[in-house]
Amino acid sequence: MKRKKTAILTAVLLIMLSAGVYFYYGIIFKEARNIESEAPDFSLTAKKLLEDYNADPKKADSLYLNKTIEITGKATKETDSVIILENTVFCLFKEELKNKMINNKITIKGKCIGYDELFMEVKIDQCTVK
Amino acid sequence: MKKSFINFFAFLLIIIANNEGFAQKLITKTGNIKFQASMPSYEEVAAESKSVSAVLDQTTGDFASLALIKGFRFKVALMEEHFNENYMESEKFPKATFKGKIEDFDSSKITSSPKNFTFKGDLTIHGKTKPVSVIVKISKAPNGVNAIGTFEAKPEDFDIEIPSLVRKKIADKIKINYSFLLVK
């Protein structure tokens, strides 16, 4: 009888402890999103993405904002940490780019952060080249 | 026939004038904004965006800047989530803008040592606009100018509610640092 009680008590304690650890690490110290390893929610061309934003910015935001997307297009501009596709999609990389990709048709994966009215471009960050 | 020719000529002139106006503009798409809302002895509340856009018209001193809220990165993922979902509501208000004029801006007076200018304009955050006046330090850079500065903003001025539970962990005044390398 006593042994059974101790066993139940230990089990309850263990469950509480693991719940605590889960909460502590799972919620408080939740890992940041790793865009590089996420599967893209959408895969489309740079032109199509801008068309969607021009047609209805609100709807496009609800579709793409904060999502991992894959964009294909020709690299029209390239600087240290930025590639611009088809003059319409601004892609920010975490590290400096080593390979020269200007004028090549490439596919870039990143997180859509929104539409920039000043330059009429869609911006994506945390990019990687596929 | 003659009229249409004149019209065409006027149209051509407008295009040329516009192009010339465009040449006077300095731009950046990779401006930097950092903000700090930390309280002593609490966890650091700070974020940075490296993808802020800005345009400065050299002839008039007109300045416009746009920061996408989702572009701000925090060290702690949960903080970033709260910032986007609870405070900034970035699904509803995806951007913050700053539009106005740098007073007495004269590009010929810009030198390599930073000079203070007054920037007056409208700051829009969380869908709410407030007139602001801030000091901006401008210095000459290769092919353009460098504009840096600091200002403070209060969350309640922009209808951003901070629950009392975390109130003492977040500063009353949020310190915002910006740095734009504007080039042709």
UniProtKB/TrEMBL annotation, chain A:
<dbReference type="Pfam" id="PF12869">
    <property type="entry name" value="tRNA_anti-like"/>
</dbReference>
<protein>
    <recommendedName>
        <fullName>tRNA_anti-like</fullName>
    </recommendedName>
</protein>
<dbReference type="InterPro" id="IPR024422">
    <property type="entry name" value="Protein_unknown_function_OB"/>
</dbReference>
UniProtKB/TrEMBL annotation, chain B:
<protein>
    <recommendedName>
        <fullName>Lipid/polyisoprenoid-binding YceI-like domain-containing protein</fullName>
    </recommendedName>
</protein>
<feature type="domain" description="Lipid/polyisoprenoid-binding YceI-like">
    <location>
        <begin position="23"/>
        <end position="183"/>
    </location>
</feature>
<dbReference type="InterPro" id="IPR036761">
    <property type="entry name" value="TTHA0802/YceI-like_sf"/>
</dbReference>
<dbReference type="Pfam" id="PF04264">
    <property type="entry name" value="YceI"/>
</dbReference>
<dbReference type="InterPro" id="IPR007372">
    <property type="entry name" value="Lipid/polyisoprenoid-bd_YceI"/>
</dbReference>
